[in-house]
Amino acid sequence: MTVTEILQFVDSLVFTETEKHLDDLQKKIVEEVFKGKTYKQIADIYDYDEGYIGDECRKLFKILSEQLGENINKSNFCWTIERFTNSSIAKIVNFENNFKNNNINWCPNYASSNQPEHQQSTNIDNFKKPEYDLTLAPQIINFYNRETELETLSNWIFKQNTRLISILGLSGMGKTALVKRFIDLNLDEFEVIIWRSLKYPKPLDLLVKDLLNIIKPEDKQTIDDQVKQLLDILINKKCLIILDDVQNIFTPGQFAGQYQPEYQSYQNFFTLVTEIEHQSSLILIGQEKCPEMEGWENELYPIKCLELSGLYDLEIMNNKGLKNHESWLNLINLYEGNPVYLKSIAILIKNIFDGDVAEFLAENELVITQEMRSHFNQLFHRLSPIEQQIVLKLSQFEQPLSRETLRESVELSSTDLINGLQSLQQRYLVTKIKHDQIMFKLSSVFGEYVRNFCKN
Questions:
Q1: Separation of alpha carbons 41 and 117, rounded Å
Q2: pLDDT at 111
Q3: Of the four, 80, 136, 141, 448, which is 20 to 30 A from 403 by CA?
Q4: pLDDT band at 84, cuts 50/70/90?
Q5: What is the model's pLDDT at position 99?
Q6: What end-to-end distance do the CA atoms of the chain give, in Å?
Q7: Across the chain, which distance is largest between two alpha carbons, in Å?
Q8: How far is CA 437 from CA 381, 390, 399, 402, 408, in A?
Q9: Rounded CA separation 242/176 (Å)
Q10: How many CB atoms are closer than 10 A to CB 77?
Q11: Rounded to 5 degrees, what are φ and ψ at 116?
Q12: What's the pLDDT tens digit per position in 203-261?
């Protein structure tokens, strides 16, 4: 069987499902997968990100699975497609005899099986069909220099069996991209993977029902029954559940991590996930650290926090149309290594300075783009009045301030000041610096926004 025949067969299935023929990249993917190439090898050949190739492959596998009525994945793609292309309703018996007598094995990178036919059938029947729902997960085109964090995640999940993990940091740091990259590299390690966003959060009972509908177990009515059912699944299957934008279940205008009344049950759910012994992991992605994480994160609980800071890698400035390569690191430092800030300012530099980074830096000003301002407006209004007072004062100073200096400068009690500083640290807006005494520094980019756009 030739690659051309395989391509024709796959193209006909895709066209039946989507009314579109395979594009050039999809044809290349089918050809290379048929040759036994890994996602990384395909990505290297055609100069794509490995995660992007993985996403494209899984889209194709999903279409083929629906058309053929069998679960198709990278491991079984080759022999499954061959089996179908060599058979039709009128030739099934003849095909099976040929397969058994001639031991057909067209796929060059998969060993032929010498098992009796009835054993092969049994193996197929016993194949565990994984349940993946990544429709709300982002598609990662480029991924930069987070190998250490990926290794940390792998260690926590596969070696330490960590049940609850928080990925935390300012918006734009690459939290979501990191988790998606981890999934792309470890997809076959899980029986169930579900990605959900809490950008527009729903009550816990609706979320649990949604998760159960993906896995399709026996229906239960009460929320207690449904939570128990979900926990049973976490015990019996290797599951990975991701909740993105978790900060949206917290109350705006209060200290970080304070649950809104209608989402208070999430706190109990997270506690159950940590306390009940199981083989699965729940990953929370957010911009605010839950107060419970501070108390839970110790040897008594299988829980970890991974906090992402700036990415100081010149590679993130590639393909943005910028000049003066020698000035890129200065630009990265100015915007605290935040990939989203840098993407926004790169567009401005390209449009206004014709991509000349040195000329932009010569202005000697930290420019806040409209995109940044819109984001910071939302962030500032999530702060409590106490936090707003603290950041307004910190923004007036370029140097870090001690708690004693702050207390003399703001009309806050010692308790309010301490709680406010802790909350700002949990939002990753204020950093604690240890010198001769403890100092507190406001994020430079956010501080520039506060100085220019917030009233004292």
A1: 33
A2: 39
A3: 448
A4: confident
A5: 37
A6: 74
A7: 90
A8: 31, 19, 14, 7, 16
A9: 10
A10: 22
A11: -60, 155
A12: 999 999 999 988 866 666 788 888 999 999 999 999 999 999 999 999 999 999 999 99
Q: Tell me which residue of 368, 415, 421, 413 sits closest to 391, measured CA to CA.
A: 421
394: burial class by Cβ within 10 Å (0-12, 13-18, 19+)? buried
As a whole number of angstroms, the distance between CA 216 and CA 360 comes to 56
The residue written with tokens 């970890």 in the block is 304
Q: Do residues 136 and 197 lie in contact, with contact meaning Cβ atoms separated by under 8 Å?
A: yes
- 430-439 own/partner pairs: CB under 8 Å, 24+ apart: 430/390, 430/391, 430/394, 433/400, 437/402, 438/402, 438/403, 439/400, 439/401, 439/402
Decide if 203 contacts 263 (C-beta within 8 A).
yes
DSSP 283: E
The radius of gyration of the chain's CA atoms, rounded to the nearest angstrom, is 26
Handedness of CA 182, 185, 189, 191 (dihedral sign): positive
pTM above 0.85, yes or no: no
Q: Average pLDDT, whole number, for the chain?
A: 85
Highest mean pLDDT among 122-131, 208-217, 269-278, 414-423: 414-423
